[in-house]
Amino acid sequence: MSWYRYDDADNLVLTLHIQPGAKNTAATGLHGDALKIKLAAPPVEGKANTALLKFLAERFDVPLSRVILKQGGKSRHKVIVIQQSEHDPAVLFDASCS
Fold it and tell me: What is the pLDDT of residues 67-89, one digit of tens each?
């Protein structure tokens, strides 16, 4: 299984493993069947989820309203839907976007 797929509506669905409290926010590689993302936000009061959604919206160049936390609100394992993105998932590894 891949860490990303496209659903019937051609939305990008990401399977992620999140490590909050890191020094920087970045995609770091695979963790099982998920993409591991380190977040420079603490796992308290939804701060890590908010930081994750903002990071993904910026990387995929979509409004924050098009980045949806589908599963894993209180878990490190998350499923995110990105609606109507024109970017390939490889954009997460593009250091020039930082």
Answer: 999 999 999 999 999 999 999 99
- The encoded tokens of residue 78 equal 């998350």
Distance CA 7, CA 91 (A): 19
- With contact defined as beta carbons under 8 Å apart, do 37 and 16 qualify? yes
Q: Name the 3-class secondary structure at 64.
A: helix
Q: Is the pLDDT of residue 94 over 80?
A: no
Contact present, 77 and 48 (Cβ < 8 Å): no
Q: What digits encode the pLDDT tens for the residues 25-64?
A: 999 999 999 999 999 999 999 999 999 999 999 999 999 9
Beta-ladder partners of 34: 31
Q: Whose CA is closest to 15, among 23, 27, 25?
A: 27
Summary count for the chain: helices (H), strands (E): 1, 6
Q: Residue ranges of the alpha helices (H) in the chain?
A: 47-60
